[in-house]
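Technical annex, item 7. During the second reporting period the consortium partners agreed on a shared format for inverse folding records so that results from different sites could be compared directly. Each record opens with the tokenized structure and is followed by the designed sequence. A conforming record, contributed by the partner at site C, is shown below for reference.
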């Protein structure tokens, strides 16, 4: 108990008072500027370290995300390649186990399709390879290419020779050895990607540690800010308040009081000395008379400046009014209290407002008039509350409303400095009606093109790639439009058929149009040899150059077979 009493005595102050005394002793003799610079210097150092840690955290997070994404993509590629290899092996067995040529051909075509998919996956995989798996991947890619070529030859033998020949080519030790090597390569690549995932996890841990460092630095910055507040309050704000009160007493005529902080060695003490000099000066009658004369002169000068400003304000107001009244859109400007600052004639015409509604009127009065004229339907109070909320957020906005008379008004809103708001109203009825008519026309034409029995095919005249096919054309070619569009004839048809199609395209380019039918026999890769009748024309752009080649195709294979 005795020791407790001693520790709580005058010589051992504790609590907030003790902290203030310690701070006061530490900063005695320093000027206000030095105190402020010291605190700000510490805060800047903490901020710089905080910025450096933030950059490091971003770098760690970026590296983590990059490694994580690369590992996931690589793992996905391993799975896809493994599945495609298995599918190709199964199709190969189907080829050389088929007893019918048609069945073998079906399996062979599916095998070739999987081959192409495997090649595409390897191509995409190759774009994401890094230095640590480049050598392993290159060896793996070479074996995959051998595997693909091997299976192409197997498919060819199954189609053109026999299933036995395909079996002889595919069911052997060399094939099985290649499969075993591919499995070994996939396992090696998986080990590399597992190590990469482990590196990503380590980066994630480092990022979490960096986040804790950022938190600690943020606390340090907050402590510096608190210290700055305490310093400003004890060394600047408090003394300034007392000196301000003393100054107010002197201004009220009380010159008998003393000025506080005269013995303070910093800027506050200098300010107190200046106020003391002012107190002495105020006590002299002559100076008071001179101050009165100076004040009168200053008042006259201020009135002159006010008159000049008023003239400039009126001129500017007239120019602004003339400018907004010549605009084709309706303009209304509001202040933070929803009162009208400016409104132009176009806005009045849009909503049939009377000339009595001018600047100074409230937005509520405008809405009430629109309610009476039938051009506003809804809750006026709710509408005003919504606008006030948008003004408070200061977020720009755009909307369209439909009036009761059928007009469509487009509204664009923007916040102004000082809490005001400006809105531009424009009648967009004709524009929206034209857009709807155009959309109906496009839907009508699309419906016709999709349902006519003739095949419609469109090519880009610059690169001869297919850009459109209708449903009838899909059925004639035997492919979906997703398989056709974006490709050339040489990517879809045999060399002989592609030569014929390109020859017809050159003829069309010379003649501009070919409305008479030209009957050709062409090898379709899906439906076999077909007899078609084609009419062609060019569709040009604004510059007169051809933009599209459009072909109208009719399949006459059945008629040709009957005639034969």
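Designed sequence (site C submission):
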């Amino acid at each position: 108990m005795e020791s407790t009493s001693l520790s709580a005595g005058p010589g051992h102050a504790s609590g907030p008072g003790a902290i203030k005394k310690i701070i006061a002793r530490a900063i005695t003799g320093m000027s206000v500027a030095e105190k402020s610079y010291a605190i700000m210097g510490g805060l800047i150092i903490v901020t710089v370290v905080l910025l450096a840690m933030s950059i490091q955290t971003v770098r760690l997070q970026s590296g983590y995300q990059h490694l994580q994404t690369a590992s996931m993509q690589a793992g996905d590629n391993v799975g896809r390649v493994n599945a495609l290899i298995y599918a190709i092996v199964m199709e190969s067995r189907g080829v050389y186990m088929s007893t019918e040529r048609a069945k073998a051909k079906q399996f062979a075509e599916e095998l070739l399709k999987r081959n192409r998919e495997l090649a595409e996956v390897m191509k995409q995989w190759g774009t994401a390879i890094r230095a640590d798996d480049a050598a392993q991947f290159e060896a793996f890619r070479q074996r995959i290419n051998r595997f693909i070529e091997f299976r192409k030859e197997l498919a060819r033998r199954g189609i053109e020779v026999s299933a036995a020949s395909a079996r002889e080519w595919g069911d052997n030790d060399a094939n099985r050895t290649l499969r075993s090597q591919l499995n070994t390569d996939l396992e090696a690549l998986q080990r590399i990607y597992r190590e990469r995932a482990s590196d990503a996890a380590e980066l994630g841990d480092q990022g979490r540690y960096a986040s804790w460092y950022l938190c600690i630095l943020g606390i340090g910055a907050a402590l510096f800010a608190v210290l700055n507040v305490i310093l400003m309050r004890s060394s600047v704000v408090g003394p300034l308040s007392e000196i301000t009160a003393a100054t107010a007493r002197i201004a009220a005529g009380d010159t008998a009081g003393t000025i506080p902080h005269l013995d303070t060695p910093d800027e506050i003490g200098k300010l107190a000395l200046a106020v003391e000099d002012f107190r002495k000066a105020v006590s002299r009658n002559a100076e008071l008379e001179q101050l009165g004369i100076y004040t009168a002169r200053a008042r006259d000068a201020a009135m002159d400046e006010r008159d000049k400003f008023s003239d400039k304000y009126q001129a500017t107001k007239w120019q602004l009014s003339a400018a907004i009244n010549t605009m084709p859109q309706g303009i209304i400007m509001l202040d933070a209290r929803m009162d009208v600052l400016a409104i132009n004639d176009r806005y009045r015409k849009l909503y049939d407002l009377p000339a009595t509604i001018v600047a100074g009127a409230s937005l509520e009065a405008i809405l009430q008039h629109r309610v009476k004229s039938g051009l506003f339907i809804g809750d006026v109070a709710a509408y005003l509350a919504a606008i006030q909320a948008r003004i408070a957020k200061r977020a720009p906005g755009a909307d369209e409303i439909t009036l009761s008379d059928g007009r469509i008004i487009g509204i664009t809103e923007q916040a102004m400095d000082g809490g005001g708001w400006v809105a531009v109203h424009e009648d967009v009825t004709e524009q929206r009606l034209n857009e709807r008519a155009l959309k109906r026309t496009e839907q009508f034409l699309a419906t016709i093109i999709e349902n006519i029995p003739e095949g419609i095919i469109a090519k880009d005249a610059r690169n001869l790639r297919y850009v459109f096919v209708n449903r009838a054309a899909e059925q004639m070619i035997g492919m979906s439009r997703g398989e056709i569009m974006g490709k050339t004839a040489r990517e879809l048809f045999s060399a002989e058929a592609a030569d014929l199609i390109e020859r017809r395209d050159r003829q069309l380019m010379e003649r501009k149009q070919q409305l008479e039918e030209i009957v050709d026999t062409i090898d379709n890769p899906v439906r076999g040899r077909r007899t078609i009748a084609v009419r062609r024309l060019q569709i040009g752009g604004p510059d007169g150059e051809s933009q599209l080649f459009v072909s109208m195709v009719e399949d006459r294979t059945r008629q040709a077979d009957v005639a034969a």
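Residues 1-13 have pLDDT under 50 and may be disordered. The longest helix spans residues 173-251. All partners now use this format for quarterly exchanges.
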